[in-house]
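Question (not urgent): is this output format expected?
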Amino acid sequence: MQGRTHCFLFSVFILGFNFPESRLVKSALQSFYGVGPQHSKRLMAKLYIHDTAKIGTLADKQVLDLTAELSNMTIENDLRRKLQDNIKRLRDMGAYRGRRHAMQMPVRGQRTRTQTATANKLNKVERFG
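Got this back:
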């Protein structure tokens, strides 16, 4: 490790997660469950943050505004719980989609004669009662 200087990277704390200063704001936002490319782009435009901005270059007020915006959104555990509740509601009603979820079968009309491996994987994910 010749010629390399050791520097300490500071991290920025946003909504319970630590992000290194060198990380792009866009990718940091997308690391939250429920925030994809479109949501992150909209959030950044709303707060006047450049597309290639890094977490370390944000002012404290921008970080606080970002945290406030994210706390108003349904993300992470709230969104997962909402998804589980919706599937549970479908199962309790006895709807076709609920029965398909319960049987770990494709829900949206895909073929079942072959190629059901993906549906089996997806329908096993903590969607039961």
